[in-house]
Amino acid sequence: MTYLLAIGTGKGLFLATSRDRRRWEVSTPMFAVNGVYAVGIDTRRTTPRIVVSADSAHFGPSVYTSDDLGKTWEEAEHAPPIAFPADTGATYKRAWQFAFPAPAGQEDVVYAGSEPWALWRSADRGASYELVRSLWEHPHRAEWGEGAGGPAIHTIVPHPADARRMLIAMSTGGVYRTEDGGASWTASNTGVKTEFMPGDLHYPEYGQCIHKVSRDSQNPERLYLQNHGGVYRSDDDGRSWTSIADDLPTDFGFSILAHPSREGVAFNAPVAFSDNRYPYDYRLRVYRTEDAGASWTGLNVLDDPYYGIVLRDALCTDGAETPGLYVGTRVGDVFVSADDGESFVQAAGHLPDVLCVRAAVV
């Protein structure tokens, strides 16, 4: 069994492999002068495919695919694979997320979320993409704001059994859902607070600065959400949300992740927002809930003082029978746990700032 870890950084992509998730071989950088904000590993077919968003300051942004675990890379014949139609007046900057829907008949479909706010659909495993016009033309779009990280759709959560249902989230616009395969979209932010809004608009229909959403693997109607301020759970597929932040040391952070095989288990990496946006108490910890957010337990990744935070896509699992938990930080370290966060080993260090991590068994 081989574990593959893809690490997107501010200066390239690194691929790491391991047989035991303790000792890792890390590649030299690929796309070395590119920001890699999104990477996906598609394991729905026998041959895994890696999909990478590479953002070159000289050549511009593009999307690349590899079917041989990074030995060679392909770009669509008519580059770039993602480009706004002329009538939109928009310019594609980068992809922030790739998603691979699970329902039967969707094996070749890949979704991408981009900056500026747009959703894209590929029917050829991520080689080329078409703009999802229904979301781009949503009447709310003119009022979506730009978060500190950029105006991006950074979260795509397909339903595991129903191809008609999907949830997306963005900064700054909130959560939107479709139940008709993307023909229409509804804002779904009931219960999510926005303290930065003026006056009494603390619970608006939309405009929330969502940082990440993750779906419970065993209960697909349950979702977990990390807001700009606030951690929430939904038990009705995102139609409404309830706070689960009371037992966390701070409700600010970027990442949240559901366990791939245990119902009610999720992970969060709190950040000290009001003070300095360093890890809370200057310790690199992941917090785990085993009761869907009613309580949280802090798990030390490192005991020493630490100053690198975990970004929204720098927390992932590998989907193994005994899953690994992967934590990447802005100071270029990646840590791995094979026991649900009870202990960690370092898989990579001294890399450029880690923007995203993805892992799979290949």
TrEMBL record:
GO biological process, one term: xyloglucan metabolic process
CDD domains for the chain: Sialidase_non-viral (cd15482)
MF terms (GO), sorted A to Z: hydrolase activity
Keywords noted in UniProt: Hydrolase
Name assigned to this protein: Glycosyl hydrolase
Source organism: Actinorhabdospora filicis
